Amino acid sequence: MFMIGSLTAHASTFVAMTAEELIQQSDAVVQGKVLRLDSKWDAHGRIIVTEATIQVSESIVGNAPAQIIVRTPGGKVNDYRVEALGFPQFNKGEEVVLFIKDDQSLQVNRIVGHQQGHFEVVKRLDGVTLAVPRIEDGVSFLTPSGRSVPAPRSTELDTFKGRVRAAAARLGKPVQK
């Protein structure tokens, strides 16, 4: 293959998940603050992962301990960097809402639905608090039949949590008030 110049393509495609699917596959939905980030090689030395320590301020659905560790692909160790487009990336100090699944074999949690299960909590200048989806440019979502689906939109935090609780109750999941 002959190529002139170079192109950088940054794109990832994921199967779109409904709120009900995210909740059904989650052990808990939590709100909390990122306290610490630690990047390291996985146990097999094949890929770099980042573990985010989250101080849980509220369990919205299910039960979660006061602190959880969430592992995601990507990160930087010494001179090696792995960028995992479409997977959650955290910043120390940020407030988040996460749909989590407990991976007991690794003793960490993972985010259900990749970036679909990661929302940043931000306050607008007018004081309204929002749940903002953390979807990167270049990430797209498709239905199982291949139809493109728009990324989720920002929602007022209280409305977002109310919708999550209502969907969880319909699914018979334990809801926290």
How would you briefly describe this protein structure?
With 177 residues, this protein is mainly β.
Q: What would you note in describing this structure?
A:
- This protein has 177 residues and is mainly β.
- The chain is built from two helices and 13 strands; from the N terminus they run E-H-E-E-E-E-E-E-E-E-E-E-E-E-H.
- Strands 2, 3, 4, 7, 8, 9, 10 and 13 form an eight-stranded antiparallel beta sheet that branches. Strands 1-11-12 form a three-stranded mixed beta sheet, with no helix packed on it. Strands 5-6 form a two-stranded antiparallel ribbon.
- 27% of the residues are buried.
Notable features of this structure?
8-stranded antiparallel sheet; 177 residues; globular; OB fold (Dihydrolipoamide Acetyltransferase, E2P); 3-stranded mixed sheet; disordered N terminus; 12% helix; 2 helices; mainly beta
